[in-house]
Amino acid sequence: MISRPPDFMPKSSQPAAHHAGWRFDNSYARLSESFHSRVNPTPVAAPRLVLLNHRLAHSLGLDPAALSGLGAAAYFTGNQIFLGAEPIAQAYAGHQFGNLARLGDGRAILLGEHRTPAGERFDLQLKGAGRTAYSRGGDGRAALGPMLREYLISEAMHGLGIPTTRSLAVASTGEPVQREQPLPGAVLTRVAASHIRVGTFAYFAALGDTNSLRVLADYTLLRHFPDRVQSEHPALGLLEEVIERQASLIAHWLRVGFVHGVMNTDNMALSGETIDYGPCAFIDAYDPAAVFSSIDHHGRYSFGQQPRIAAWNLARLAEALLPILHPEPDTALACANEALESFSARFQHHWLAALRGKLGLFTAEPEDAAIAEELLRWMHETRADHTHTFRNLKPNAHWENSAFTAWHRRWAERLARQPQPWPEVVRLMHAHNPAVIPRNHEVEAALAAATANDLAPLERLLAALARPYEEADQPDGLLNPPPPGTPACRTFCGT
Ligand code: AMP
Ligand code: MG
Q1: Which residue has the CA at smallest separation from atom 15 of ligand 1?
Q2: Fewest Cβ atoms nearer than 10 Å: which of 55, 162, 311, 421?
Q3: What is the pLDDT at residue 1?
């Protein structure tokens, strides 16, 4: 029997997911073929929907019932294609641990851009959907555990109020993927402001393709920074905007103890969203040198290095943009350097604002940075839990540790020099210091249960992390530091 392609089927025979409210408009696919290559997802044996993000679906103007109904799972593995999608793999490069490589979507397929009823535009991408022109030696696939992990951590970041790609669904494939051992395969449906990376610019710069570079800059400006399109030097405006968003993003990461783990330039989005959740994790004990990734032997991407690495990545973006920053090469270089030099001050501004919030300071005094640094130093020395310490700061508490008592007095005196009453101070602190974060031991336990078909612990974690600044009814395992003897978390790339 010859089966007809889905688009020719009578509408009634298509699953509801096909028409779940999609409004695709695929502007990236309309760029020339140097930007991408057309590719269909490779069908899998037995699609099964594992998680659907009902709230996200709803906020995108999609019908969650249609997306979880009969036949929907096939769409979330790429066996079927949503109405209006035009699958492509995007071309990009990336500095991996410092070395430029030609990459591209090796296992991710961009279905297209969905426009919400409110007029916002989001990329819809299937991660783990099969081989593409950029797969090199890879199988184009992803394992269930890591895809659930990305879903959980990205949604936790969103709950924390931090710009991030989102996760709409995870579907299992019914096929094993071969890693160190065979693992169940899965596809993640990722929603992003866009997937334009620092490495996308590096790709065209390395090819010497100035024309495409200009097209990409114009496209990115129009999509993310429309106010800058008409400016005299739009490419410089683009660079400045991206620098500002990254400065703000990294301050957020430090505020909640997030370690991205693999800040290669292909994993830095121009939109300012956190992207590519691989070997990421949250710190428990405060330690600037904290590293979780099993391959980051020199701590290049350790917790405290992240501002420096962001600046390094932004320098690679500036370098790539040089040919279009200004017609005069010397002026282009001077503009690039001036923009890059602003990163440090921008980051310090956001970081100090975050620290003031964490310490309940409404007013600004020159001493504030030193007060915060003294606390962080004490936390480092005593390996205090980052989340728990900040969340439980109280000016009238009594401490056994004398160094902490000294700091505590200094902080209480500082609080007394501002007019805000204590309840207002608490409100400010609670808005900057989450009560719960995705603690590694809880994440690992929930993922282990989920891969053994028990989703309940993962659902509980997701519910808790959707309201991380609230303490009431939160699980003890998330509210408290890990019990003594909990093994250190190790995370893996190439998941
Ligand atoms: P990542 O570490 O996830 O940022 O990926 C780095 C590069 O490797 C990207 O170009 C990915 O598309 C590619 N890649 C990662 N895993 C696979 C895989 N299983 N098959 C093909 N390409 C992959
Ligand atoms: Mg990546």
Answers
A1: 494
A2: 421
A3: 46
- Maximum CA extent, the chain: 81
Q: How confident is the model at residue 47 (pLDDT cuts 50, 70, 90)?
A: very high
CA distances from 452 to 179, 347, 494 (A): 18, 42, 22
**Nearest C-alpha neighbor of 94 from the set 269, 342, 237:** 269
Q: What is the DSSP letter of 268?
A: B
Would the pLDDT of 304 be above 50?
yes
Name residue 126's beta-bridge partners: 109, 189
Segment 236-260 mean pLDDT: 98
How far apart CA 165 and CA 179 sit, in angstroms, is: 26
Residues with CB under 6 A from ligand 1: 103-108, 134-135, 138-141, 262, 266-267, 276, 278, 493-494
Q: How far is the CA of 228 from the centre of ligand 1 (A)?
A: 33
For the annotated catalytic residues, the residue numbers are: 266
Q: Which of 103, 125, 195 to mutate to test the pocket of ligand 1 (most atoms within 8 A of CB)?
A: 103
The candidate with the shortest Cα–Cα distance to 101, out of 147, 134, 123, is: 134
* Cβ 494 vs Cβ 449: under 8 Å: no
Ligand 2 mean position, distance from CA 176 (Å): 22
Token digits of residue 52: 């659907």
What is the dihedral sign for C-alpha 382, 386, 390, 391?
negative
What integer best gives the mean pLDDT of the chain? Answer: 95
**Ligand 1: centre distance to CA 107 (Å):** 6
Global pTM reads 0.96
Q: Residue 334 is which amino acid?
A: A
The alpha carbon of 266 and the centre of ligand 2 are apart by a number of angstroms equal to 5
User: Residue 286: CB partners within 8 Å, gap ≥ 6?
Assistant: 257, 376, 379, 380, 383, 384, 385, 386, 389
- pLDDT tens-digit series, residues 251-278: 999 999 999 999 999 999 999 999 999 9
Contact 464, 474 (CB under 8 A): yes
Give the Cα separation of 359 and 225 in Å (integer): 33
In terms of DSSP H, where are the helices of 230-295?
A: 234-256
- Quick one: average pLDDT of 218-240? 96
The pair of three-digit structure tokens given for residue 325, joined into one six-digit string: 């920053």
Distance CA 332, CA 322 (A): 6
Spell out the residues 6+ positions from residue 466 whose beta carbon is closer than 8 angstroms to its own: 55, 155, 159
Burial of residue 494 (CB within 10 Å: 0-12, 13-18, 19+) is: exposed
- The confidence score (pLDDT) of residue 77 equals 98
Ligand 1, residues 107, 126, 262, 301: which to mutate, most atoms within 8 A of Cβ?
107
Amino acid at 332: A
- Relative to the alpha carbon of 142, which ligand is closest? 1
